[in-house]
Automatic annotation (TrEMBL):
Belongs to the exbB/tolQ family. Involved in the TonB-dependent energy-dependent transport of various receptor-bound substrates. Protects ExbD from proteolytic degradation and functionally stabilizes TonB. It is found in: Cell inner membrane; Membrane. Signal peptide: none annotated. This is Biopolymer transport protein ExbB. It comes from Variovorax gossypii. The chain crosses the membrane at residues 20-41, 127-150, 174-195.
């Protein structure tokens, strides 16, 4: 409650610079929370898709496996499977032109890597906002504090008195700007770190899926790591 009244006093008694700093910090807080919520929902959805992506390999053929990934074009696992299929078909249809430049393994690797890079860029959208807010909000709040203290001292100097009742209020209200800056920065930093960890998990699963897709399109079977040796696992026939 005291912080609420303090913020109101900062707004009511502050000049244009103080109000501009407060509005900027509030805007940064809203932007960071929007990014955190939207990207967190995306990470949760991608983790669920990563869990269900293993069903892809428990299918009779590739078409059935693809249907198990759903019809959502934003599903990165489905998009990667389509990229690999198109790359393999393109290489077969243009073998006479491509065999001297790239073999099928290199061609599919390039297609899958491009798909992963595109998804990585999409996955990291918005993280720059959180990084910027987390690194700049404390200093913006500190600037508001310094400006508020300067403004308060100028008022005290013009009044010719420096009693505690005249100093405590304005200085305390100025310090609220520092607290506001930290309140904006801390969620942004924590949200950034949590999203980076979530993105890393999703990308790890996507890279593993791409490895299996590469093996499937090149050899006709999925390659899994077993007890020391590679195990070739074709799509189930029944």
């Amino acid at each position: 409650m005291d912080s609420h009244f303090g913020l109101m006093n900062v707004w009511n008694q502050g000049d244009f610079v103080t109000k501009a700093v407060a509005v900027l910090l509030i805007g940064m807080s809203l932007a960071s929370w929007i990014v955190i919520i939207v990207k967190a929902l995306d990470v949760i959805r991608y983790k669920r898709l990563a869990k269900h992506s293993q069903d892809f390999w428990h299918s009779e053929d590739f078409a059935t496996a693809l249907n198990k990934l759903g019809q959502d074009d934003s599903n990165p696992f489905r998009a990667l499977a389509l990229e690999g299929r198109e790359a393999a078909a393109h290489h077969r249809n243009t073998k006479a032109h491509l065999h001297d430049a790239l073999d099928v393994s290199d061609w599919i690797t390039r297609a899958l890597r491009n798909g992963i890079d595109a998804f990585t860029a999409r996955l990291q959208t918005g993280l720059a906002i959180l990084a910027s807010v987390g690194s700049t909000a404390p200093f913006i709040g500190l600037f508001g504090t310094v400006w508020g203290i300067y403004h308060a001292l100028m008022s005290i100097g013009s009044a010719g008195q420096a009693t505690i009742d005249k100093v405590a209020g304005p200085i305390g209200e100025a310090l609220i700007m520092t607290a506001l800056g930290l309140a904006v920065a801390i969620p942004a930093v924590l949200g950034y770190n949590a999203l980076v960890r979530g993105n890393k998990f999703v990308l790890t699963k996507l890279n593993a899926f791409a490895h299996d897709l590469h093996a499937y399109f090149v050899t006709g079977a999925r390659v899994q790591s077993g007890s020391g040796d590679a195990i070739v696992v074709p799509l189930k026939k029944g």
